[in-house]
Amino acid sequence: MSSQDNLSKEATITQLFSDAERIINQGEYAKALKSIDKILNLNPNDFDALHCKVIIFLKLGKYQNALDLVMKNFSEDQLPLERVYCLYRLNKFSEGAELLRKYRTAGNNDSGLRHLEAQMAYKLEDYNASLETYYNLLQETDSKEDTYNDILTNFNAAKAALLFSGGKLKEKYAMADSVNTYELAYNYACTYLGKKDFKKVEKLLITARNICRKSLSDDDYSEEEIEQELGTINVQLAYLYQLQGRTAEAINLYQSVLKFKGIDMTVSAIASNNLVAAKKDSELFDSARKLKVASSNTLDTKLFRIQRRIIAMNEALLSLYMHKYTVCQDVSRRLLETYPENDDLYLILASIPYRQKKTAKAIQELQEFIKLKPNSLSINFALIQLQLLQSNPTSALETLENHLSSIKDDSEKYRPGYVGLLVWLYEKVGKPENSVQALDQAGTFWKSGVMSEESRSILKQTAAFKLKTNRYHEAAQDYEQLVKGDPLDIQALAGLVASYSQYDINLAEKYESSLPDLSVQTEIDIESLEKVVPGVKKSYIKKADAKTIEKQTKTTPKKKKKRKPLLPKNYDPDVPPDPQRWIPKHERSSNKKEKGKRKQQLMKGSQGVAVAGGGIGGTGSANIAGRSVSNVSSSETTVTSQPEQPAPTPTSKPKGGSDKNKKKKKKGGNKW
């Protein structure tokens, strides 16, 4: 190839690079890819063109294509950032972390790689490593740089994740709150949520929501896009309401988020799961549909392990509520293989026979589970609860004693809750001396150290029990120690006075003066006191005053006019009504009974003989044959309508009257 051809080729490549740069600045990456391909057709080994093609693939979200291009055309020490980023975006976190260790060992301290290292540790749920890397990056980055807020945002996210997982933050990680962006405000809120500071969480989340709406509105985002971005903040706010017991507000907020179809899959899954948890055992079929969305396989790499576990557990619980016991058992046992450390799954398995009214079997299963996990607090206390429900305090006491014997740490063993339950069970089984011994042991342990809330609680329990069992001198000694520690403790002062009053009145009077005076109310409103008596019906309370006031306030309504009675058309006010008008006519005294031969039958002959006027013509009945009868005259078929006769006025019959003297009516004549 001549030098002139080479110059022409170089000029063409230069022009294509210029075109690609212009198109990339316009954001049209797919179109720029065509220009880069033309360059590679001219020079397949052009390093800049290949590098540019990798970047374009990353911008287009084609991470596998970008990784394949890097692996094929570049050595391992070339493009380390792009190579690791591809692995990160393809959710190959372990492989990416291993590659990062190689680069760091080789001395590559690029800030971009270190940022990726922190993100990779975060995804692998190694929050301490992630925090340490972010902390070091923050120390090395100027707060005025654009990347500073991004690092700070991710740093706070890692802090929140560590707190949610049960970890503890180092003091050096404590930094002043910064709410320059809604992402920062949101992550600070998550950090305080891990610390259970709910008031601060709500304030920060509302601040984040306001900043988000304002900043996106200023950037001309549509309302739908703004709501999609607000979804994460609203779901976290709803979760806060749920923790505070504001269930109705939480449900409304979850439902408002799920209305938008373009919401992020992760946000939608968490909102669906939390909504199911808020509704508990109501609307089960709707809950099953929502949980199916939340447990999609496509979310496995986007949700943390604890989130996946909670969603899977809710699936098992939903099956339990829907009485699908076999499904619940299968799901729970499968989850135990993945999450063997989760004690709640054992409780779900024991709940299956319990809900089937098989308490004895549930107790037996819990006893088997305790053999596998003897130190489990939740399993042991679930067994104690069932044994108490079976009215078996002896077995419950044995379970508690076995559990306490497995605890090596005395500060854990002598916790007030444990000691209180142990004393109560000893009383139930009739062993008061064991109660005293348990209280003494706990008291001795807590007295040996600095007086704390736990030690004061134990000492109060011990003193109250000694006072109850008439050991007044010992009770007074314990109460004295409590009063010395806190002279304003009214409960301890009252116990000390009660103890001294049993054997030394002077000392009792001395400390009694330290007790606050009872506030006695001199003026008592008897009527208001009667109204608030609990458990008593208030029907005895006089309501005359209330009725009088009500009459005064209400205006007297106008009296409605009485409706005139409806009278028959032939009613004559001068003629008294028949007193027997309600009795059937044939039972009235005015009815004349027929004598002699019975009336001739209206129809003679065999069945089916035609009767004039019967079922034909003017009666309106249909002709069975479907045609008229020609030999029936019109006079026979025509019915003359007549006005209805008024009811005859009843008169009494004269004595001795005969039917023969009565005139016969003329046939066919008009009675009027």
From TrEMBL:
Looking at the record, the residues that make up the Signal recognition particle SRP72 subunit RNA-binding domain are: 542-593
Q: Where is the composition biased (Gly residues)?
A: 611-620
Ranges of Low complexity composition bias in the record: 621-641
Keyword Membrane in the entry? The reply is no
State its location(s).
Answer: Cytoplasm; Endoplasmic reticulum
State the InterPro entries in the record: Signal_recog_part_SRP72_RNA-bd (IPR013699), SRP72 (IPR026270), SRP72_TPR-like (IPR031545), TPR-like_helical_dom_sf (IPR011990), TPR_rpt (IPR019734)
TPR repeats span 13-46
Q: Which GO terms describe its molecular function?
A: 7S RNA binding; ribosome binding
Q: Where is the composition biased (Basic residues)?
A: 556-566, 661-672
A family per Pfam: TPR_6
Q: Where is this region: Disordered?
A: 550-672
Q: Which GO terms describe its cellular component?
A: endoplasmic reticulum; signal recognition particle, endoplasmic reticulum targeting
Q: Where is the composition biased (Basic and acidic residues)?
A: 584-593
Any one GO biological process: SRP-dependent cotranslational protein targeting to membrane
The alphabetical list of record keywords is:
Cytoplasm, Endoplasmic reticulum, Ribonucleoprotein, Signal recognition particle, TPR repeat
Briefly, what is this protein's role?
Component of the signal recognition particle (SRP) complex, a ribonucleoprotein complex that mediates the cotranslational targeting of secretory and membrane proteins to the endoplasmic reticulum (ER).
Similarity comment text for this entry: Belongs to the SRP72 family.
The protein in question is named Signal recognition particle subunit SRP72
- Name the source organism: Gigaspora margarita
